[in-house]
Structures are given as C-alpha cells and as structure tokens.
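Open question from group meeting: does this chain pack into something compact, or does most of it stay loose? Before anyone orders reagents, we agreed to write out a predicted structure and look at it together. Recording both the input and the output here so the notebook holds the full record.
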Amino acid sequence: MNIRVILAEDDFLVREGIRRVLETAPDVTIVGEYADGDAVLAAVEADPPDVVVTDVRMPPSGGDEGIRIANRLRVSHPAVGVLVLSQFAEPEYALALLEAGSERRAYLLKERVHDRRQITHAIRDVAAGGSTFDAKVVEALVAGRGADDSLLHKLSPRELEVLAEVAQGRSNAAIAESLVLTKSAVEKHINSIFGKLELAGAQDVSQRVKATLLFLDDGG
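Structure tokens returned:
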C-alpha cells in the first residue's frame, strides 16, 4: 500500500527535516507541502490524501491549528488520517484531538521525528484506521489527574510506554519491536500493568485500557 501524505508545517527547516525522513520510507509518498491551515484544507478538498501530518501550531490562527484541521476533517473527510506533531507534551491538545474519537488520529512529539520507525509507524497506523499517542503525552495526562484520581499512578514510566502500545491494540510481538524489548519482557510488563489496574482476567482488556487512557480527563 502506498500512503499519500500531505505535510503541513510553517517552519521551513522543520518541514524539510520531516520530508527527508519520510522520503526514506518506501510506502510513503508526500503529495503536498503547506505552511498554513487554510491551504491544507483546500488541498484535501481538491485531492484527499491518506494522511495529513501537521504541526499543532500554524497560521492562520497561530494556536491549535493542527487540532482544528483534524476536527474539521473528522466531519468533511473521515477517511483521512491525521498525525499531529507538537513541540511539547501538552495534554490539553491531545484531549482536544480525542474529543470525537481516536480513530485515524495520532499525536507525537517532534523529538520523535528523527526516528523514522516511530513516525512512519504512526502514519501507517492512522492510514489503517488506528491511533498512536506519544508515551510522554500519556504520562502528562496521568500526572494531570493526580495520584488520588487514578490507578495509573502506580505504573512505572516503562509500564506507561507499554500501556500506550497496548491501548492501540498492538500484539506483544509488535510492542517488543516498537520498544526494543524481548517478547517475554513485554509479557511481564503487561501482567504487571493489568494487575496494578485491577484488570487481570477482564474480557477485552485492550479496550478497557484504551478507555482508561482516552478518558483521563473524566473524573471516573
């Protein structure tokens, strides 16, 4: 499958860096590069890509333009995936991106861009209807809830990374490859996570974990 990507980033040097990383992926083709949200939406309307990779802050608003693009496309072009890139682990942006659901949406920190495997993995995920959220953003969401509000405060940083992968429905083998762990190590982490979250033995565990991640802003 060839994944057609529109790249939206107003900083020329950053855009060039992302483009060069993506050009090394054999199944990704950049079909357009833009520096503002209006141009992106017009390009999608004219010829919808498979995925839009966008900075979270761009003209014309200079604020959460990437989130606005994602939300607009959720209505006008639901089959188009959106990967939002951010300089900082800002939970409010991630939660805004999730308001209408996680399908075909991803949120990564720009520091991941140099790792072709991570950014292309996220692009492939959203193109296939899945989702990806940066482990550091997950940690920030957990911290924002406070220790008394969630069982998630019991998890170690590595367990939070594994949890972010589990919540996206990935197999143990895929998680091991993504996080550079052995499969047995992943299994041990998952057993520990489910025990700490009191989910051991639950049916459809991945969906329950995903719900925990996506609704951290709800006191439940």
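Observations to bring back to the group:
Strands lie at 3-8, 28-34, 51-55, 81-86, 105-109, 131-133.
The mean pLDDT is 83.
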